[in-house]
Amino acid sequence: MTKKIVIGACMLALAASSLAAKPAKGKVLNIYVWNDEFSARFNDYYKANNPKALEGVTVNFVQTPNQGNAYQDKLDEALLAQKDAKDDEKIDIFLVEADYALKYVDTPYTLDVMKDVGLKKKDLANQFKYTQDIMTDSKGKLKGVSWQACPGGFVYRRSYAKAVLGTDDPAKVQEAISDWSKFDAVAAKMKEAGYFMVSGYDDDFRVFQDNVKSPWVKGNKIVIDPQINAWIEQTKKYTDAGYNNKASLWSAESTAGMMKDGKVFGYFGPAWYVDFCMPHDEGSAFGDWAFCKGPQGYSWGGTWICAAAGTDNIDLVKDIMYQLTCDKNNMIALAKGAGDFANNEPAMQEVAKSDYKNDFLGGQNHMAFFIGSAASIDKSKITKYDQGMNEKIQAAMKDYFDGSVDLNTAWDNFYTAIQELYPNLKR
What we know:
Oligomer: single chain
Helix content: 40-55%
């Protein structure tokens, strides 16, 4: 986030007061997204199954990348203009991520999924609770729904596990890395064998961050949870010992470690990470991967569908939300077809007990070990500051891991960056 966006959240609340959903069927369904993940799910699991629902309607995906806050800036600009926009230009659906969901949840720009959109409590009953907790506003209104739950695990190279641990079986590999002390011991063995335990600085940040006991901010004071310090200490140790490849998340170096000739043992991520972030093409290590839980349970990310106040396609929005986030058969098809861990517990129980196999993961049915993690996810510690906090702590500490600044300087740089972003916060 930037100062502009923090201020914008207040502006959104004020400007939205006269907006409401319109019952008429519009000619254009405008959906604001930052990548093609939702459009792929929409086309494969809604449009393909409900062609008549879209008769006479043009579906328009307005895609703006997340980088540099571009997506939120574009979305905010459109939301501020929503009241006066022509019907065919109004936002009908927009997507949000967990790190900044609260910015939109507590504004009138997001419609109540039950009261305004029309989904019933029974429709939503099988979704994992945390996915609804994140999108519930201060008055108890549910403001968005998701087709996925995002418990995470450790995805590792089978061949490297066999070479170093003598087995690639997920249950046995899990025994070997079931806590951080064991994880460290395996990291040393991987180094001796010529492999990196993880790719770089940020690989396990979300594991530690998701296990904090305190939110990033209490009142207007910045809080540093012991889990954040644990991540810093471990990452500095791994960097100095050569246990990581000094790569940053999403970098070319990180991706190169995933290829067939890459030397990285494993990466932390949820099901979407495997599908969207790991190479599946020629030269990749396709089939040489498997999932296990890792040292700590955690979750990372997720995408929520919000109905925009002022939409003139409310019935269509309701149907999309139902089909893509509530319908059990669709959830099963989504899990088996796309590898998503779908947001429907009975559906995932069924897939876990089925003969489903993920070819990328060497034929593993990875859904089974995710179920317990998904049911136990607690997002009560999230704040509207999380995106900025998570980004700035990683950026500030990278200089420390690289050795270009000492730890005290890195902390000073973090606080400076945060207070520029959120002037109301205190160290």
